[in-house]
Design a protein that fits this description.
InterPro entries: ASL1, Asl1_glyco_hydro_catalytic, GH. By secondary structure, the protein is mostly helical. Helices cover 40% and strands 9% of the residues. The chain has 2 domains: 273 residues, TIM Barrel, CATH 3.20.20; 36 residues, no CATH class.
């Protein structure tokens, strides 16, 4: 799929070159008010005049992100509403997300329920969230619960398979399945992969990068080609054409080509993440990285397993 939008966890685009590319390409830039910082007190100053949406606080139930209790966020929300109303913007919810350690609340639904309980009648036009799992089925369950509970469109503004020591074929299989889930779910308006360059995010692993490292001009990885394509078949055709014309990156192995071309397993459209992951949401930290680790990882609660284990020391 062609890139239609982007964001940078901030209110604006500080880089003039990025501003120029965004304007010339027609790609939407969506500003975010990250938390109680980063231009919050100056709203609506700093927001682009041509914006049509505004994203709310980033992972407020995670202490290492915006770190806000639901009642704090609800108290701050009228500031975002005022900016959205002045500029006629649709307003996305605080992007609560599953959390394993260093959490205000592990369960994003618990955080959202308390936020909405403290923000009765507040403007929230769509639900923004993140999900780090390697299972398209768990992703589908998570999306089901969001729409069932809140009845609003969904923006999945971060997703990837945490795969620090895994194979590229595993990442490719997940991406194909996840994109199919997202594209076929009428309740999902937008989504964004994390990230173009993985860099220091070693808990995700280099297989999640959309761009080849240290290549100038930038060149798409196999995953990036799938992300930019409408289907695996389109990817295979574009990869072959580009390799003939410009010299493509390292050729795919037989296993990696199979990950792109093999039929995807069926994904059930029904089911509940809250029900499936209840034991993980209530588990001790020891259980999260112990007896239940494989299951809780698919629930999106163990993206960064090394950091979780550090909390046990």
């Amino acid at each position: 799929m062609p890139v239609q939008w982007w964001y940078n966890w901030g209110n604006g685009i500080p880089d003039p070159a990025a501003q120029a590319v965004t304007a010339a390409s027609g790609i939407d830039f969506v500003p975010m008010t990250y938390g109680n910082c980063c231009g919050f007190s100056d709203l609506p100053s700093g927001l682009p005049e041509n914006a049509t949406e505004l994203l709310g606080f980033n992972e407020p139930n995670h202490w290492e992100e915006s770190g806000l209790y639901p009642e704090q966020a609800a108290h701050m929300w009228p500031k975002l509403m005022g900016a959205a109303q002045k500029l006629n913007l649709r307003l996305g919810s605080p992007a609560a997300a599953p959390c394993g350690a260093n959490c205000i609340m592990r369960n994003p639904f618990e955080w959202w329920d308390q936020f909405f309980g403290n923000c009765t009648g507040c403007q929230v036009d769509f639900i923004a969230t993140h999900m780090y799992t390697c299972s398209p089925q768990y992703l589908q369950w998570y999306l089901n619960d969001i729409y069932t509970r809140y009845g609003r469109p969904i923006w999945l503004t971060e997703l990837a398979c945490p795969n620090p020591n895994g194979t590229l074929s595993r990442q490719l299989k997940y991406a194909r399945g996840a994109f199919k889930v997202l594209d076929e779910d009428d309740n999902v308006e937008r989504y964004a992969w994390f990230a173009p360059h993985i860099g220091a995010f070693d808990w995700i692993g280099p297989t999640a990068s959309l761009l080849e490292p240290d290549v100038d001009p930038p060149q798409l990885t196999a995953l990036g080609r799938i992300y930019m394509s409408s289907s695996a078949d389109e990817y295979m055709q574009s990869a072959e054409v580009e390799s003939e014309l410009a010299g493509a990156p390292a050729q795919l192995s037989a296993e990696e080509r199979a990950a792109i071309t093999e039929a995807l397993p069926d994904i059930s459209k029904t089911g509940s993440w809250i029900q499936q992951c209840a034991s993980c949401l209530d588990a001790s930290l020891e259980a999260l990285v112990g007896s239940q680790e494989a299951h809780c990882r698919e629930c999106g609660l163990i993206g960064n397993a090394p950091a979780l284990r550090e909390n046990l020391l």
